[in-house]
Amino acid sequence: MALWRGSAYAGFLALAVGCVLLLDPQLPSLALRSLWSSLQLAPAPPGPGSPEGRLAAAWDALIVLPARRWRRVAVGVNACVDVVLSGVKLLQALGRSPGNGKDHTILHSTNDLEEAFVHFMGKGAAAERFFSDKEAFHDIAQIASELPGAQHYVGGNAALIGQKFATNSDLKVFPAVTSLGLNEQELLFLSQAASGPHSSLSSWNGVPDVGMVSDILFWILKEHGRSKGRASDLTRIHFHTLVYHILATVDGHWANQLAAVAAGARVAGTQACATEAIDANRVSLRAPHEFMTSHSEVGSRIVINPNEPVAEWRREGISFHFTPVLVCKDPIRTVGLGDAISAEGLFYSEVRPHS
User: Fold this and answer.
1) Which residue, 286, 353, 338, 231, is CA-closest to 52?
2) What angle do CA 271, 272, 277 make, to 5 degrees?
3) d(CA 69, CA 348)
4) How far apart are the C-alpha atoms of 122 and 106, rounded to whole Å?
């Protein structure tokens, strides 16, 4: 019955469109698209059987505590107060209205702030920029802090990561770096600074290409990570961007990577939506459906399956673990999200005894 009904709808639509075109062959294509959109059935809401629901359930099965729990974690020393509010409302309070976007390496004025805000929001990317005018910055911060609806949180990478670990570990100040957590801008800045792979890119165009990200992560660990002839202790990098994460580790030093990368991605969805568990109705799967693992050499093609959401590959003694992120459709709190991701992934990681 449903099949016949669908066929009847399709036949009626074809007949209607044919009659309209016969009466007015110049009817704008936009009107036809609107007609088609109005007749389409609404998509079913996400649920347990949706890709989002299946991926969340697969994460829950993968995320297990490491066999050896953390006893001590060393983090840097920095802290601040984050003021969270609508960027548009702040610009309005400063007497600005969003216009054309433009990136600025250093902000000198409210005009620079407005242009940088529009530029990065248009790309859906986070940004950090130094503000050179101390008095102007103080005025902006004061106005932002006093706006109705402004929220204040503990900020600073070390403070947030330390806060995440505080209930499970003792905190000790220590110079060795064994693990890094970074986002797409920080990764590209690092490659540009040392003339690494794909350093000719001025910025990412939308979602960072997985193969390019993989190339840069490989280069960092291969050229600057731990080895017999190098003093470096770096053996782990947790890369996070809006729609996917990659955990890259030097073989033999870390375990429980599947759980670690899945846990980091899961906390991105729960903290942004302010929920205890992933709510499939409030998140969206936006990661690339398939990708190449490298562009510097002949890589392999990987297709993502929501039922098995962590993809793995190896390259010259370095292991990569990729998982999509379930992006919150209507985020409530994104401040400190990168630090929560890094801390959660590290908490589920396990250091091998001999390393």
Assistant:
1) 286
2) 50
3) 8
4) 19
Place of tokens 């400190």: 336
CA-angle at 162, arms to 160 and 163, nearest 5°: 65
Determine the Cα–Cα distance for residues 243 and 324; give it in Å rounded to an integer. Answer: 6
- Per the document, the length of the chain is 355
Type and span of the H or E element at 281: none
pTM: 0.66
Q: Which residue has the tokens 């979602």?
A: 207
Q: Is 221 left (phi over 0), alpha (psi -120 to 50) or beta?
A: alpha
261 contacts 345 by C-beta, under 8 angstroms: yes
Give the Cβ contact number of residue 284 at 10 Å: 17
CA distance 350 to 347: 8
Rounded CA gap, 268 and 270, in Å? 6
List the catalytic residues. 339
- Give pLDDT tens digits for 253-277: 999 999 999 999 999 999 999 999 9
CA distance 263 to 250: 20
Q: For the chain, how far is it from start to end, CA to CA, in angstroms? A: 65
Residue pointed to by tokens 């939506």: 273
Q: Which two tokens stand for residue 328?
A: 């919150």
Note every long-range contact of 190-196, with CB atoms under 8 Å and residues 24 or more positions apart, other chains counting: 190/216, 190/220, 191/216, 191/219, 196/220, 196/223
- DSSP letter at 120 equals H
Pairing of strands 236-240, 106-107: unpaired
Tokens coding 30: 């936009």
Q: What are 189-229's pLDDT values in tens digits? A: 889 888 899 999 888 888 999 999 999 999 999 988 887 77
d(CA 60, CA 21): 53
Among candidate residues 250, 259, 248, 321, the one with its CA nearest the CA of residue 67: 259
Q: How many beta carbons lie within 10 A of that of residue 78, not counting itself?
A: 12
